[in-house]
Fold these 3 entries.
Entry 1:
Amino acid sequence: MRLSRQIGEALADGLTDKGAQTATRRLARLLAADAVALADCDRLLAVSGDLDPEAAKTLLTETLDLLEPVTAPPLRAAPLVVTGDLAGCLVVAGDVSDAELAEAVHLVATALDHADLDRSRERIAAADLRTLRAQISPHFMHNALAAISAHTRTDPERARDLLTDFSDYLRYSFAGTGDFATVADELQAVQTYLELQRARFDDRLDITLRIAPEVLPVPIPFLVVQPLVENAVRHGFESRPGTGHIAVRGFSEGALCVIEIEDDGAGMEPEVAKALLTGSRRGSGRIGLANVDRRLRAVYGPEYGLWLDTAPGAGTKATVRIPRYARGVHA
């Protein structure tokens, strides 16, 4: 079991030279083989043990052509097929049974499948982040600049402070370094955003931030909290008279980090909230809810994501639940 896990870890980035070198050593031990080699569709990547390179290359070519196991004593080879596509070949030498070879091929192919899935998730997450930035920036920049402009004559000092806040927020929002931030970084940006919105609404926006210290260093996908807060402002407060309240809370539930954004606005029908999360409802003006949910599930798995608790006249609470510690997630 330990060797199987180590082989999967070695191939976490796919069939690379370095990963293949480690994986072949582990496979040789697992199979008690005289030698093991891994190849992609072009060349031998790594060999562990005493193996004739020319004989291995000949067998490799035949195996990739036939797309089925080939035996040329003392060598045996089998193709590696990942999600229907040929990825490479496994070559072994020694007293290895058909069942053992098939199990080794399955182990390697599964590891490569997981690596490919992880890369696909990363590409989807990056594309979703670009889409989310494009959605948020026009609304935010227009509103922020309007707030700064409104204070230029009446309160120049505050206008200067707001301009600094605006600059800091844009620097954070459009930073190109990494896919993750800490909860502390996200909430600092959110606090800056809310200060700009308070200025826009002449301080009619009441804000509560309550964050437990233990969740501040938790890594979280970049720009997850801000679109939830922006939706709370736009749909919970923007169209109503008087003072509105928005609460942002962060705390731990065992191994989970929980972040809640709650407003006391008009709320919505639960069916509408469900449609927004699935992306099946268009033209609502809600920014990035399906995007945020999809990115969270892509990073952490389907059991995590975004939840909306709402009803007409009862406001809306958006809740993010993610693991406090997740493999491969670093700010």
Note: The chain has a mean pLDDT of 80.
Entry 2:
Amino acid sequence: MKVRYWEEQRLGVKPDRSWQDAAVRWLKETSHKRSHDKDVANLRWLHPFLGHLMLSQLTRDVVEKIGEKKAAQSSPSTANRTLALVRSILRRAKDDWGWVDHIPKVRLYREPKKRICFLSPDEARRLLNELPLHLRDMAQLALSTGLRQRNVSYLRWDQVDMSRRVAWIHPDEAKAGRAIGVPLNEDALDVLRRRLGRHPEYVFAYQGQPVARCSTRAWKQAVARAGIEPGFRWHDLRHTWASWHVQNGTPLQELMELGGWASYEMVLRYAHLAADHLRGAASRIDGTFLTHKQKPQLVRLS
């Protein structure tokens, strides 16, 4: 201890800090994050691997083995969320707290781009008919407004003005951290009228409490009974809403505002569903290879 203190005071050697110290400080400083509970769950999973180590012992090999373990248990995308948390904590320990001078490079897995999963109107009707009443109303509002699950689950009556046909999501409730104005169409208003008087505070409640989780056994069973491909998630209702808008001519810029996306790039994933405006351009080369109709040949008469 004497030697270590002398090195710190005279030579400027930084005291060795543990991963546990870093994790605790991270949780204190990020307690405001919407993903705080997920961070806690990830850190609990990481504890058996890192809880006994000092930050100086976290090498690239140690981090990569953790990623391999997580990927084997779940998926590369889930492993990336865990690795990204480790990387964020290490970066803060180096850049903000000054606990270490060097940190290992954390390499994430390549995630394949997935197809957008959305329902046809007929599939949506079948699903709604199979859902329990409280989930059916919530799903109909999601399909009508594109609201995320948490915003639907915790929607309060003081966020709704039916006379003006609008609802709003406050900045601290929105994923992008910006307030969202939600115009209400007739389908959304039908749901709200049915929910009037059921709970004094929340629009949707089950046994007196907001429905915190929607991807339940009842949801999965309803998906199966409706004949929809297994794996259809609640969040895919938002993809369905966006896909319907694009297919019916809503410009992507308007869709970005309706959905509360932070950037234009987020809505470009739906652009391929609205190729109607390019039909004229595509027809300019009709007949170039004479594949659908043979053009008559001109014969010169002598």
Note: The longest helix spans residues 76-95.
Entry 3:
Amino acid sequence: MLSRTADHLFWMSRYMERAENTARMLNVSYETSLLPQSAAAAQAGWEGILSISELLPSYRALYKSVNPRDVMEFMVKDADNPSSIISCLRAARENARAVRGTLTTEVWETQNQTWLEVNRMLRSGAFERDPGQFFEWVKFRSHLSRGVTVGTMLMDEALHFMRMGTFLERADNTARLVDVKFHAMNNDYFGMPLGGHEGEAEKEYDFYHWSAILRSVSGFEVYRKVYRDVIRPERVAELLILRADMPRSLHASLNEVMANLALVSPDPHSETLRHAGKLRAELAYGRIDEILDTGLHAWLTQFLDRVNALGSHISREFLLPQTV
């Protein structure tokens, strides 16, 4: 496969996944903002959204204060923000258009229709009327895109690069979400059951906070099925980092990246495969208590650096030089 074609397929999938993850993070912040909380806690939550995407400096250059209306405007409708939902969907559609002949008709029409529909919805004011419904629509279109891709594409290199892009982006976004949300809680005593020595109000807030984090990665029902217990921070971390059977966990994402990378790599001993395999092995054989002893923030920061390095290795070996 030509590097240019592989590059477009890889980034088409990454941008679609990024749009979905942005919608998930905004939706959980929007729902959390409806709960009783202090003004400082509410602002910290919205600042966390910008920090996850490393966009706080760009935001402050445009807006005087951090508030829900401006953050959602910036992260949904700002075409100059490369990580906004509208920018991600546009980039996904443009990459799809560039390799129109490689995609099935169903995959192209799904991407194109998503782009046309999101513009119509934003012009009509549908987002302002019901942000929650808009975010659910973005998630649905991303699910539809993945389903149509797997259901109609030939299982060749084109599909492997698309899957690789999806799961590399998912690993990056899940790690950022866990890092920012856990850091915001500043919960140093992970071994304590939720709200161990707190009042009822604090217990209730903690429950909704951790529930919101789990719902943002479609993990609330999974958590209940796996642990059958109250929501505890260390188990949330374990679920989102180490559980290979949790679809949006770091371990599950790296399993998919590794599997698809192995299918397209001509050299079974390449540096890219070695880097991916080493990272995946640490997730496969890691323990959550060891990670927490090391320091969750430090571990996740290092993980993000290594995921970005893996993306650079993939770009150098398979994709266009300028994407490195």
Note: The radius of gyration is 20 Å.
